[in-house]
Amino acid sequence: MSKLIKLHLLDNVLIATEDIPSGEHLQFQGMEFYFAKPVAIGHKIAALYIEAGERVIKHGVTIGCATTMIQMGDHVHLHNITSDYLPKNTNK
What is the arrangement of strands in the sheet containing 81-83, beginning at the earlier edge strand? Predict the structure, then answer.
C-alpha cells in the first residue's frame, strides 16, 4: 500500500497515509518523490510544481492559494498557502 493517496482527479496535492520520515524516496503514479523533511500522516504534499498565486486543490475543490513556489513533494500547509477557510486578518 502506498504512503500517498490522491483524493480527486483534479487535486494538485497528495495526502500522506502514514508518517513519512526525512530522506525517504517514494514512487506514486509513475513519479518519484523525495522527502527532505518528515511529513506527518494526513498532511498534504505537492503532487506537482505549484506556482505562487496558483490555487491549491484538495477533494476537487480549491482550499487556498500558494504564497510561494511549491516544489513537487514539498509539504503544503499554512507556511506556503493562504487558506480559503480561515478568517482574513483585518488588523493592519
Answer: 55-58, 61-66, 81-83
